[in-house]
Design goal:
Catalyzes the NADPH-dependent reduction of ketopantoate into pantoic acid. Pfam families: ApbA, ApbA_C. One of its GO terms (cellular component) is cytoplasm. It comes from Pichia kluyveri (Yeast). By secondary structure, the protein is of the alpha/beta class. The protein has two domains: about 190 residues, Rossmann fold (3-Layer(aba) Sandwich); about 130 residues, N-(1-d-carboxylethyl)-l-norvaline Dehydrogenase, domain 2 (Orthogonal Bundle). Helix content is about 45%, strand content about 20%. The chain has 13 helices and ten strands. Strands 1, 2, 3, 4, 5, 6, 7, 8, 9 and 10 form a ten-stranded mixed β-sheet that branches. Strand 1, helix 1 and strand 2 form a beta-alpha-beta unit. Helix 7 runs parallel beside helix 11 and helix 12 packs antiparallel against helix 13. The radius of gyration is 20 Å and the shape is globular. The chain binds NADPH dihydro-nicotinamide-adenine-dinucleotide phosphate and ketopantoate. Ketopantoate binds next to strand 8 and helix 7.
Length: about 350
């Protein structure tokens, strides 16, 4: 009798999610059940084309199971060994913790392969016995309709967001097991126990470059050539390093230059810029507002990050209005009316 393969539920079958799912399935190491939205069910079920710098061309990748909701996934194929979340993390619009409502089981390990800081906290608040793994990925991959273009190798660090209610070693072991399913000759997947360091290091990039590119509608290369790297990005990066330090995380000086020169030779659009260009919500809360929150709490001056954060909050509201999240009165309210935006969701 063949051994039962680890069962994985994956929520967020976009640029990163498709590569994660294919990575786990193509060597037969796990079986993935993908949760689609009702409107994307048919295309996910018919398969995506993957054009990958690491795995080559896969004409039609179809995950083992595709379901229209987490509830359907759980009822048909659960409980899952791993629940992987690779959506954009936008707590004010669709909190990640809500995805777990109908599919979480105490035997499941949650794997968050998303950018940002503080993303595990709402989950621990609701599920104090949960095991949550962190995946911090340096990859370049985008879903265009039903084709995923994967242009930069998957360099990913996994570690456990330590849950102090549980045995530490058990969490490390779970992480190492997941790594053994994920790691192969075509990616560079590593175990990194210091999740805080990995996440803050990545923020040196995301908090400064994603945000500046998104606000200026410039890709990384253009933003550099036009002078933004020295005028905005470097000062912002120094502030992130200072906030990390106030959180007990030492980021070495060379990291800033490594991030600044990391995409030399290409005009790379970071994911937040792609979201703005597509009229989508952005991950400003977990990528910058949470950093600003920690800075305020710890008394770290962050003039550049404060401006970037405030501007991005305006961008998010602009998107919200365009998406019908609220409607403004036809006549502009006067200050004395104390008008408050009424959100529909
Ligand atoms: N792309 C990259 O190269 C990198 C991305 N990251 C991070 O990885 C994470 C994922 O990014 P990325 O793959 O680019 O994002 P994408 O927008 O490409 O993919 C997210 C997917 O999640 C789906 N989704 C959202 N909500 C739900 C839901 N409720 N049910 C089912 N599906 C849902 C979206 O569907 P729909 O379109 O219908 O909303 C979309 O297909 C982010 O945190 C990002 O910052 C990190 C490193 C690099
Ligand atoms: C670092 C980078 C650009 C790719 O991994 C990223 O995290 C993003 O696009 O959000």
């Amino acid at each position: 009798m063949s051994e039962r393969k680890p069962q994985v539920l994956l929520i967020g079958f976009g640029g990163v999610g498709t590569i994660v799912s294919y990575t786990l399935e193509h060597l037969g190491r796990a079986e993935v059940t993908v949760v689609s939205r009702p409107e994307t069910y048919d295309s996910i079920k018919s398969g995506y084309r993957i054009e990958s710098c690491s795995y080559g061309i896969i004409d039609n990748y179809i995950a083992t199971n595709v379901v229209k909701s987490t509830k359907e996934g759980y009822e048909k194929y659960g409980p899952f060994d791993y629940i992987i979340i690779t959506t954009k993390n936008i707590p004010e619009i669709s909190p990640v913790v809500d995805f777990l409502e109908d599919c979480y089981h105490e035997s499941s390990t949650i794997v968050l392969i998303e950018n940002g800081i503080g993303i595990e906290i709402p989950i621990y608040r609701k599920y104090p016995k949960a095991i949550i793994l962190s995946g911090v990925s340096l990859i370049g991959t985008t879903l265009y309709e039903d084709t995923v273009k994967h242009i930069a190798r998957d360099i990913i660090k996994f570690g456990a967001f330590i849950n102090y209610n549980l045995d530490k070693q058990m969490q490390y072991d779970r992480c190492k097991h997941f790594l053994s399913l994920y790691s192969n000759d075509n990616n560079f997947a590593e175990y990194e126990e210091n999740v805080k360091l990995t996440r803050w290091r990545k923020l040196v990039y995301n908090t400064c470059i994603n945000t500046t590119c998104a606000l200026t509608d410039l890709d990384f290369g253009r933003m550099d050539l036009f002078g933004g790297m020295e005028s905005v990005v470097r000062p912002a990066m120094k502030e992130v390093v200072a906030v990390a330090k106030s959180e007990g995380v030492e980021i070495e000086d060379h990291v800033i230059d490594e991030m600044i020169r990391g995409e030399d030779g290409v005009y790379y659009p970071p994911s937040m810029l792609i979201d703005v260009r597509n009229g989508n919500y952005i991950e400003n809360t977990v990528i910058i507002s949470n950093v600003v929150k920690y800075a305020k709490r710890n008394g770290v001056p962050i003039p550049t990050l404060t401006v970037l954060d405030n501007l991005l909050k305006l961008v998010q509201l602009r998107t919200g209005e365009a998406k019908g999240r609220f409607e403004l009165p036809e006549k502009r309210p006067l200050p004395e009316e104390n008008y408050q935006i009424q959100f529909k969701y």
